[in-house]
Amino acid sequence: MSQRSRLALIAAALGLAALHLGAEPARRADYLGSYRWDLDDPSFGGFSGLVLDADGQDFVTVSDRATVWAGQIRRDDAGMIVGVDVSAGPIPLLDSRGKGLRGEAADPEGLARGADGALYISFEGLHRVARYTDPAGPAERLPRPEAFTTLQRNSSLEALAIAPDGTLYTMPERSGGVSRPFPVFRYRNGAWDQPFSIPRDASWLPVGADFGPDGRFYLLERDFWGLLGFLTRVRVFDLTPEGFVGGEVLIQTRAGRHDNLESLSVWRDGDGALRLTMISDDNFRLFQRTEFVEYRLND
């Protein structure tokens, strides 16, 4: 490669980095703040699933090391996070025989909670979704369709959400090709199908999802730019009989704005505004952090 070509490539790379580290695109959600959560426990970290109660205080989260944690978020008079209290955890997840999860079976990612309080957890090692009426009790097996067995290793069922009617929706982190849409799997009436898909958009990957109190589907996506850090995006869709439509961007950050945000919970605050609360997966690495990040829709 000529010297001129090398210089051109370097200039292009620097320009791309400046684009992602510079001003953030216009968005429909206002950043409220971040709260770094620390705890002196070797099991602490790796949080990739989150559900919040309707008031944004009581929470449940799941760690990549197959533990469940529950607690309360403390807020000031303005509704900002000022502390996190753990009321239960780490609770080791069990398989359907009551044995502790090990190896590829022990990599939970997505988390959703049904109207009856049961937790649904998606896994990306042994690709599956399990139901827990008690997080300390044995898993209840859900059917495992043939399509799950073809998903990419360590990149499968990251996003999991439960619709108001109790239907589960889950998506893999990778679609299997840059031009291939992400399949959306649906669980209802005791069976899985794959009626819908969401088009892939460049290098954005789905990592979390939730149905908000408005009944709309919110999708958390991330991109990764190496030493520059993670980028975060949240889009919103309407679910119709024909599939997911819309995809308006509510949040899109520059690289390094937040850590590795992997889960999303949407709720309505005391002023009636929708809030988007996210938690990061620190991958149990010293140079990353566990943080709660919140945005509020501005209309």
Structural write-up:
The protein is mainly beta. The chain has one helix spanning 3-21; strands at 29-36, 47-52, 58-63, 67-75, 81-92, 108-113, 119-123, 128-132, 140-141, 157-162, 168-172, 182-188, 191-198, 205-211, 217-224, 230-240, 243-252, 261-268, 274-280, 291-297. 39% of the residues are buried. Mean pLDDT is 91; it is low at 1-22.
Write the layout of secondary structure elements.
Layout: H1 3-21, E1 29-36, E2 47-52, E3 58-63, E4 67-75, E5 81-92, E6 108-113, E7 119-123, E8 128-132, E9 140-141, E10 157-162, E11 168-172, E12 182-188, E13 191-198, E14 205-211, E15 217-224, E16 230-240, E17 243-252, E18 261-268, E19 274-280, E20 291-297
Antiparallel strand pairs: 1-20, 2-3, 3-4, 4-5, 6-7, 7-8, 8-9, 10-11, 11-12, 12-13, 14-15, 15-16, 16-17, 18-19, 19-20
Key phrases:
single chain, 299 residues, mainly beta, 4-stranded antiparallel beta sheet, 20 strands, disordered N terminus
Sheet of most strands: 4 strands, antiparallel
Name the helix and strand elements from N-terminus to C-terminus, one letter apiece.
Answer: HEEEEEEEEEEEEEEEEEEEE
Put simply, the count of helices is: 1
Q: Strand pairing plus helix content: what structural class?
A: mainly beta
Low-confidence stretches: 1-22
Helical fraction equals: under 10%
Quantity of strands, as a count: 20
Report the β-strand fraction as a percent range.
Answer: over 45%
Strand order of the largest sheet: 1-20-19-18
User: From the alpha-carbon coordinates, what is the Rg to the nearest angstrom?
Assistant: 19 Å
Q: What is the global morphology?
A: globular
Mean pLDDT reading: 91
End-to-end Cα distance, whole Å, is 52 Å
